[in-house]
């Protein structure tokens, strides 16, 4: 590999891990800085983060060139409520040869800046504590799209599979008009606030959106998801029903 190629910014950051080295949002721990693990498929970005002031975090987003836009949810280690926010990071190769993420982000409505540097990935990330799951029991559940104002629902409806821990809900979805998608959010007082990103079959586009979803129990003990969403700036409404 020549020097120019070695200094190039990679087309994919799938599997790369970064640690925070500075932030205007909080003091950064030297012993256990927040660590981020990125996944990438096409333009679609998702991942996890832990450490320092964060007990558990998840994010989804989109990559456009060297700019990565993400939406995130994390549980503070001090036991506070789950934090939601948005960030825009620029990938940068510095003179030291290392890959950096220079980030502008918003946390609970307040603007901040931070910087992260690539590090060797952990051999294994800590396992999730099952004692930190909460009601309703969304962890391991699956839903299919029943109706939507965004498109006609086919015989192969979009399927959503969820995980939950520490008040954070995240998951993946696929089928019908969606090649693949990822979502993350928080559940509070019967409402799921959620961000999502997915690749659309018809237009070959990767779209970002957000939603407010009511989790409604039905007579047979399952749940329905009643969702008001905005996809690529266009509002919509959908209903999903839980499946085995």
Distance between the termini: 50 Å
The amount of beta strand, in percent, is: over 45%
| Global geometry | globular
Series of secondary-structure elements, N-terminal to C-terminal: HEEEEEEEEEEEEEEEE
- Alpha plus pi helix count: 1
Helix vs. strand class = mainly beta
C-alpha-based Rg, rounded: 19 Å
Q: In this structure, how is the largest beta sheet organized?
A: 8 strands, antiparallel, barrel
Q: What's the rounded overall pLDDT mean?
A: 92
Unreliable stretches = none
Number of strands: 16
Structural overview:
The model has no long low-confidence stretch (mean pLDDT 92). Strands 1-2-3-4-5-6-7-8 form an eight-stranded antiparallel beta barrel. Strands 9-10-11-12-13-14-15-16 form an eight-stranded antiparallel beta barrel. Strand 15 (223-231) and strand 16 form a beta hairpin. The chain has one helix spanning 3-6; strands spanning 17-23, 35-41, 44-51, 54-64, 67-76, 83-93, 99-107, 110-119, 142-148, 159-165, 168-175, 178-188, 191-200, 206-217, 223-231, 234-243. With 244 residues, it is mostly beta strands.
């Amino acid at each position: 590999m020549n020097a120019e190629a070695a200094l190039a910014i990679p087309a994919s950051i799938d599997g790369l891990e970064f640690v925070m080295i500075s932030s205007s949002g909080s003091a950064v721990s030297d012993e256990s800085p927040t660590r981020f693990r990125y996944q990438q498929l096409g333009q679609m970005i998702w991942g996890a983060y832990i450490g320092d002031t964060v007990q558990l975090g998840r994010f989804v987003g989109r990559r456009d060139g060297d700019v990565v836009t993400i939406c995130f949810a994390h549980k503070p280690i001090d036991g506070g409520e789950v934090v939601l926010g948005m960030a825009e990071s620029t990938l940068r190769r510095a003179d030291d040869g290392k890959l950096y993420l220079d980030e502008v982000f918003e946390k609970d409505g307040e603007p901040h800046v931070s910087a992260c540097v690539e590090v060797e990935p952990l051999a294994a990330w800590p396992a999730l504590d099952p004692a930190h799951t909460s009601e309703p029991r969304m962890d391991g559940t699956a839903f299919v799209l029943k109706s939507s104002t965004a498109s006609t629902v086919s015989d192969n409806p979009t399927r959503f599979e969820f995980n939950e821990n520490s008040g954070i809900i995240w998951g993946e979805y696929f089928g019908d008009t969606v090649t693949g998608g990822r979502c993350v959010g928080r559940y509070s007082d019967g409402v799921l606030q959620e961000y999502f990103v997915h690749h659309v079959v018809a237009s070959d586009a990767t779209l970002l959106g957000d939603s407010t979803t009511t989790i409604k129990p039905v007579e047979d003990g399952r749940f329905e998801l009643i969702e008001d969403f905005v996809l690529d700036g266009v509002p919509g409404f959908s209903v999903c029903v839980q499946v085995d």
